[in-house]
Design goal:
8 helices, 256 residues, alpha/beta, globular, 15 strands, two-stranded antiparallel ribbon
Length: 256
């Protein structure tokens, strides 16, 4: 089973980082967030990836082309023009990197990689969020739902402290409480190949036309995830993820 990861957007809300690299290449704990997402899938036995590249996609290609250099100790013999890689550490991954255009919308990017999916069921997610989603349990849920698409539904926490007011007096204060109970799109989809027929072309936004139509036709199920989930939309989000990684037990680290 393949996992398709969107990695081509401009990431304008975190422009402090994306001026020099694509958003999925922003590092958490010295590794791109894209690597963290792939490790999540790999921990559930999914090792075949299709990456939808776009903005500065060559940096993603260079990263994987030089993966041994990033992950191993090396010796360069300058006199004899040789390189020796020590303690090789290779992931059991197959990674297909596809240029899906710099300005293509999310649905259009998915449509562009259709030929690499070989008419099979696949996973699909964004290249800027991590979670401790049980991917295998989600796939089993998708099997039982008998719909074309399943989305991981999450309830994000509130960003600000909540106040209970009695006139001008504050009667209670809760720092960053749970959100208002709304379930939102947490990414991490399981999709049947027929969903590609719901995408017309490059200008289609996955979260609008295709998902809206699937929902209207009763072909979209929600796998509710009550565990950890965190997108990396802003510099504040990146700092939060860095702090969690530095604890030594980040909640999305589902691999050994």
């Amino acid at each position: 089973m393949k996992a398709v990861i969107l990695a081509g957007g401009l990431g304008t809300r975190i422009s402090e980082e994306t001026g020099v690299r694509p958003k999925p290449m922003i590092e958490i704990g010295g590794r791109p967030v894209l690597w963290h997402i792939m490790k999540i899938y790999a921990s559930h036995g999914i090792n075949d990836f299709v990456i939808c590249c776009g903005y500065k996609g060559y940096l993603i290609k260079e990263y994987f082309a030089n993966y041994f250099l990033h992950m191993s100790d090396v010796t360069f013999d300058m006199e004899h023009n040789r390189m020796e890689v020590h303690s090789r550490h290779a992931e059991p991954w197959r990674v297909t990197l596809v240029d899906t255009g710099e300005h293509t919308q999310t649905g259009g990017r998915l449509k562009r990689v259709a030929s690499y999916l070989q008419g099979e069921r696949f996973c699909f997610t964004y290249g800027d969020g991590v979670a401790n989603v049980d991917i295998r349990a989600q796939i089993t849920f998708h099997d039982s739902s008998r719909t074309l698409a399943t989305v991981c539904a999450v309830q994000p926490p509130g960003r600000f402290g909540a106040l209970d007011l009695d006139g001008q007096r504050i009667t209670s204060f809760t720092e960053k409480p749970q959100g208002d109970g709304t379930w939102v799109n947490g990414g991490f989809f399981v999709l049947e190949p027929q969903v590609l027929d719901y995408i017309a072309g490059d200008d289609d936004i996955w979260e609008r036309g295709p998902l809206e139509r699937l929902a209207q036709e009763g072909q979209l199920s929600a796998y509710r995830h009550a565990g950890f989930w965190q997108p990396m939309d802003t510099l504040r989000d990146k700092i939060k993820l860095e702090q969690l990684w530095e604890t030594g037990a980040p909640p999305w680290k589902t691999w050994r």
